[in-house]
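Hey,

The postdoc asked me to send both predictions to you directly instead of through the lab channel. I've kept everything plain text so nothing gets mangled by the mail client. Protein one:
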Amino acid sequence: MARKTKSEPEPENTEKRIVVCATFSRERILTENSDSARELFNTSRYGSLLDDGRVQLSLLEALYLLEKGKIEVIEGKKKKLGVQDFIKRSTKLEPNFWIRYCVFKDIRNRGYIIKTALKFGADFRVYDRGVKPGEDHARWIVYPVHEGSTLTWYEFAAKNRVAHSTKKRLLIGIVDGEGDVTYYEIRWLRP
């Protein structure tokens, strides 16, 4: 019987985290063609799946995944973008980017899937927990606003009409100076 003279270290839990490589090109974020990239789409519905196997992410989705360490973003000739550089670049492309991102991040952190809602005339559409786009309809449309901004009654009524006509609930996400979000749900009532 062989005797151990030195204690052998026990194997550590070395679960390898896979980071998906993505490129920032002309207002678009495109992932590599890999199983890991498609897994981001299949499990949590990040981005949209392209015919060539890559996933196209919105700026908001890409920043969220970059902060979570799930992707790395390359721009130009192998210049890796950090979070702050990504935010600066995105803010130049979308002036309301940070306010929109605060709402996007808060809703994603709460376990909901959030997608753009341009065809509804809103910023976002949000699906109930456990529901993926394509399986059922979104439950809410969301308009992010900064706490210091104002809406006229006509703008407010227009947003409410869009929600009512698309059979969704209207959420106004108000972002304060610290990036915290408070939601107000607005519905039509019949007296």
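Protein two:
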Amino acid sequence: MKDIRVFLVDDQEIVRRGVRGMLEQEEDIEVMGDCASAEEALLQTEIFSPNIILMEAKMPGMGGIEATRLYCQKQMPCSVIMLTLCEDCLAEALEAGAVGYLLKDIKRQELAQAIRRVYNGELAIDERFTLQGMEGESEYLPPGGDSSSTLVKEAELVILPPAEAARLLRFAYQVEGALAATIVQQVGSWDKGTAITIRLRKVTPLVDILDRLGKMPDVEEIREQPATKRTPLSSPQKSIAKLRPRPRKKFLVTLKQTSSAEESGLAELRASQSMGTKETGKSS
């Protein structure tokens, strides 16, 4: 089973066939299917469970940008890359939730690398474009892309144990403010580690994310976890894999040790929660 599952959406059959032929040469990319309209794509995505959708921005009927908004509203576990002839829809596509924007004259290896970057939680923009930030500044994505040029839209923060529930809640609240982000998922426990998935309101350079997290008062250490190639799945695991969210940029976070005063406050909080539970049980 290949790591990256791609679905193609374009109203031109010759384009779909050409892109499929290009991607079938890549060892880690599988084209799950294709269709000629965004309306059909919304239905087919639930069947094929792709990681990545390559979509034309302008098509008859519903356009790719409108479809991207619907994907985001439904929180479907896939990323949309615009593969288009349109050169003036970049800002609108990113606002809608696309995490890639490529022109159709792209070379095969460049397309494959862009797909891998998005699969790993990064943004992939044709290097001929300049990104305009919300405050009007320009952020340029240089070709090649080292860690200082990587732009991130989504990330997963792994909080190393132990970390009290109250501290995790406070940390999550601080993250939303520090990174201008929204918490979309939180799983785990205080004693075994917690993973917090965040979606940033605008694409942000990787170095800025590390810098802002490192300056948070509760953070002892923050480091990026390098992407690792996953081992092939056995047959019983394949159906489960489709339900898993796509990989994102992942950061390992160590919180500072709690002070005596804070530990006392947390203990009081746990005691009050325990007492409330007992009282509820008695009243029932």
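Summary for protein two, as requested: Residues 4-145 form a domain with the Rossmann fold fold (CATH 3.40.50.2300).

Thanks,
C.
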